[in-house]
Amino acid sequence: MPHNVRPSFGIMTAPMNVDYHDILRVWREADAIEEIEHAWLFDHLMPIGGDPNGPIFEGWTLLSALAAQTERIRLGLLVTSNRFRPPAMLAKIATTVDVVSGGRLDFGIGAGSRPNPPMAWREYPAHGLPFYDVPHAVGSLAEAAVVIKRLWTEDQPFDFDGEYVKLTGALGNPKPVQRPGPPMLIGGRSAAVLRVVAEHADLWNVPGGDIADVISRSALLDRYCTEIGRDPAAITRSIHLSVDYVRPQHTRDAIGQALDAGFRHFVLGLGAPYPDGVARWVADELITPSVQGRSHDPAASVGRP
Hints:
Blueprint: E1 8-13, H1 20-31, E2 38-41, H2 59-68, E3 74-77, E4 80-81, H3 87-101, E5 107-110, H4 123-126, H5 134-153, E6 158-161, E7 166-170, E8 184-187, H6 191-200, E9 203-207, H7 211-227, E10 236-242, H8 248-260, E11 265-270, H9 278-292
Parallel strand pairs: 1-2, 1-11, 2-3, 4-5, 5-8, 8-9, 9-10, 10-11
Antiparallel strand pairs: 6-7
């Protein structure tokens, strides 16, 4: 990823073991702070941290509500589990949110929960959902990406006879506000998923933590892009970093390492309970110092890639 692409920063509020009004408060605050350009939820049906029997909200429903109560920030799920919803239905849901938001959706999707964290496994039997093996999960993700883009762009009904997805007379109407559709962010780090990323994604997201592994995965994505004749720079590199309220320098250091590695899209995960004024704090303590620290770099000014 070229280092002259300007970085953008956003927040994530995991909607588990937290009240709806607390999330709404943070998103409304972030919406008024220009340094924060995007905001994210995740897509789980049962808590994967904290009280395993605590409250958790369905991601797309909540995202639509937040889209209606914000005006500026881009928004999405980091990332939608392709295992939870048939892709044609997911395309319709995403279109609805893009319309509600006035064209601010970034469409995040992934293969679905892996064995880590283990608590994510229980979502499937608890909701009557099948949990297929990895080849099925990755293959269906690739077909979903194709089908969703076609539903966003094609004006006539079509059939699709894939190995995992089969549609008859499929048609998406209305279309998303964004044309040809919302940017597609695919999350994941496995080699198999990275091949899907290389073919279909506008952005690729990976969890932070082990920067050496993140760098190696980004290099592997470069290779897969080259193999299929796609410019690796066409895919914006995105990273999720957990925010340390007590030791903000740890988070600033992680941002700096990722910037040096070519990442330009940052999702800063906020732990609950959210402190008063947390969005302003993120801008002042994390985003601005990280950008100003590279003020000599043409990539230092904040802006959406």
